[in-house]
Design a protein that fits this description.
Helix content is 15%, strand content 33%. It is of the alpha+beta class. The strands form 2 sheets. Strands 1, 3, 4, 6, 11, 12, 13 and 15 form an 8-stranded antiparallel β-sheet that branches.
Amino acid sequence: MKCYNLVSSQINAFWNNRDHYHMKKLYPLLAASAFLGSTLSANLLVSESFDNYVNDQTVVGQGPSTTGFTGNWSNTGGGLASSVDYYPRSGGLSYVNYAPSSTSGSLEAFRSSGSHSGGAKRISRSFDYSSPGTGDFFISFLFANNSTSAEGDTEFRFQAEGSENNDRDTRLSIDHSNNDITIGTGGQAGAETTQSGIAGTNLLIIRAIYDSDTNTSGNPNAGFYDRVEIWLNPEITASANPTLDDLGTPDVTGFGIMRNFDGGGNPMAFEQFNFKHSLKSGDVVLDGLTITNDLGDLIAIPEPGTYGLIFAGFATGLVFLRRLRKAK
């Protein structure tokens, strides 16, 4: 949408001043238009596609610069070994019309051998982004469940404070004993849904809905996020001007309260992201982790060929007008 509006304004300016332009000025305009289609939204708070890591080495100790994170990944669960670890790998996950899909990298949690013992193995990395403030926002990521384990589980957790707290954190859990997934959000009631049949690549999208009239006793002048909508594997419609209708109907709507506050009273301020597993065999892969205020960061625009036809038609029309003017 931002690209379309800007290109439209440039076309109008070109037309209104056509007598002062030379055709050679058209080409930089078209090149700039193509570039603008790939720019990121200013509302993008977190973006991690695991594209700039050293592959085939543990992710612990690595921390390349990426939107919304700070520091290195750390081993907070103990017990990581050659048979139980988290490795960046080449090749990403993709999902139809999900814009953060990547092709070059992802993060794999695995257990290649050994018995299921010693509890979950967990890694963490700290968030470093401004609170979304007072508007709705989205959390989303891709995960591939390739585990053949008959026991154990995997959890993705957006942690609100220094230690895990189910009343404040937002979390997704995979139970490998029955291949089910449970999505939960912290709060007085929370929201959970259980889905089956999650082999292969899956997409999770959570929409946190802000209510300015809802207060907490610790921060009486600020509202907070008292509703969530959750989509698991939605059929996304590509759009240059996306709306929630492009995601379809949520799998669950929760009316629990997401009570995440930082020390300054800013709502929904996460401190760190945790990825942990207690697999017996196989692996789970993470990719396309995104937090944003703008739905346009999640939904792909129509295929570039569509815009190519528009620009080609625009260029052909200008050439025709130029030749027509010369013929007069």
